[in-house]
Amino acid sequence: MNLWKSTIGGMALAALVTAVPTQVLAHDHFERIHEHMEKWEEKLDLRKEQKDELKALRDAMKAERKTLKEQNRALYKQVKEAIKSGADQGTLDNLGAQLGKVQVAKMQLMDKHFKGFEKVLDEEQKAKFEAMKAEKKKRWEEKHQDMDDDD
């Protein structure tokens, strides 16, 4: 009886472990960031030249984003297959390290994009943008403070 429960429990855990990351991968964070940037462009009342410069920046980074996304998906698939096939820990660690490098590259690209965004702004827009970021950070901290209180 215990073996049966352990087997079912293990299968349920495996299904959960593979389903949740798949949902995360389905959502492209770069696209969400671009949606935010478009909203910021409106709120900051950017001039046409600034909007054109930002569009050129987005277009220039599009191929790099796509490459990183494809690498991420391919490595994730390899990790998933390695786990299913019972690969040794060394293989999993190696794949995990490769996946980590791709994640770092994605973060670096996003940082580069944010710096490019801020570089386009004039002093008044930069001040307004900093105020917007501070307000967003405050709301985030308040939201997460409530979660910490629940513990």
From TrEMBL:
Entry keyword Ubl conjugation: no
Top-level taxonomy: Bacteria, Pseudomonadati, Pseudomonadota, Gammaproteobacteria, Cellvibrionales
InterPro entries: LTXXQ
Chain positions covered by the region annotation Disordered: 131-151
GO CC, any one term: periplasmic space
UniProt KW keywords: Coiled coil, Signal
Source superkingdom: Bacteria
Coiled coil: 37-85
Pfam family, one: LTXXQ
First and last residue of the signal peptide: 1-26
The protein's name in its UniProt record: Spy/CpxP family protein refolding chaperone
